[in-house]
Amino acid sequence: MRSSTSGSNSVALVYAKMLCGICAILIIALEVVSNVLLKQYSGTYLRVSQQYVQAVGSRPSNPGGPASVLMVGNSLLLAGVDVDRLQQLTATSLRIYPIFLEATTYYDWLYGLRRLFREGARPQVVVVGLPVSSFLGNGVRHEYGPLMLFDAREVLDASSDSGLDRTATSNLLLEHWSTFWDARSILRAQILRHMIPHFEDLFMLARGKPTIPQGAEFDRIASSRLRRLREICEAHGAKLILVIPPTPSSDSVARQMATASRNVGVETLVPINPAVLSTRYYESDETHLNSEGAALFTSALATSLCKKIVTAEPVTSPDKKAG
Asked: Are residues 198 and 269 in the same domain?
């Protein structure tokens, strides 16, 4: 009986090892395939990767040269800024390094900027372009962001600041370390997009409109976040400028954000008053600018940036202060 039981245990152990080996092979295969597909076929990954490398190489200009400007934001800048046109309009005074990643918010760029500075980026000016709802909202983007913008320390800090529980934090860490885990939602969305007509419209309806804090709560959150961004930028010799892109009916909150920014010493640009833009300048989602609206916003942004940056006093870097 003992030998029979021992033999059964040995067989079971062999099968268990085989199963573990098969699972390990499948996991590695999924990771390799996901990595190849993402790097070869994802326009977002290719665009942000290229922009990120260029941004890390940003350096202060020589005296009299164009100021180096790192510009970050979400889909409102991606849709609303014609980067080539902006660079043409500002070429004599500014050298712009854009990184635009859809659905990003304050925490994505707070810790994304911290990592960029740690990796060597040294722009003279940092422009953060976010709508007020994204600037005041909690959470981070779960696709691309943890993989491309964060290190493990940023994942943990962003999870703590945004109040994520242990399960959500673990997912965020996996999205940082694993291409497959990070891209799983992207793959699911692509499948649904091909299976369900007008999937994007249904998704927008399900998501609803973001809520914005009111009154004293608005000022408290805005002031605290602006100070943190300003301190990170100033610690690396960069001046922070906040740009508020237009969205329908956002003129009142844009003014409130500009007031909060002014109170903590952060320059805020509202290149176009949202109240003057009719629905003809927006896409069907009534949030993102169409090509006609983008042309207006790009020209206005170029004018505002040149005026503000060229006339602004440079921030003294910690190294120069020490010397």
From this structure: no
Residue 200 has pLDDT above 70, yes or no: no
Query: Do 76 and 176 have their domain in common?
Result: no
Give residue 178's domain range. 142-155+162-208
| In the chain, beta strands by DSSP E | 67-73, 94-100, 125-129, 239-243, 267-269
Confirm if 220 and 264 have CB atoms less than 8 A apart: no
Model confidence, pTM = 0.84
Q: What's the structural domain count of the chain?
A: 2
Q: How many CA atoms lie within 13 A of 162 on its CB side?
A: 25
CB 318 within 8 A of CB 102: no
Q: Do residues 231 and 261 share a domain?
A: yes
pLDDT tens, position by position, 45-59: 999 999 999 999 999
Residue 201 in domain: yes
pLDDT above 80 for 31: no
- The Cα–Cα gap between 91 and 306 comes to 10
Answer yes or no: do 86 and 187 share one domain.
no
Whether residue 289 contacts residue 79, with contact meaning beta carbons closer than 8 Å, is answered with yes
Which residue, among 3, 239, 287, 15, has the nearest Cα to 132 in the 3D structure? 287
- Tell me the CA end-to-end span of the chain in Å, nearest whole number: 83
298 and 223, same domain (yes or no): yes
Q: Is the pLDDT of residue 208 over 90?
A: no
The pLDDT tens digits of the residues spanning 278-301 come to: 999 999 888 999 999 999 999 999
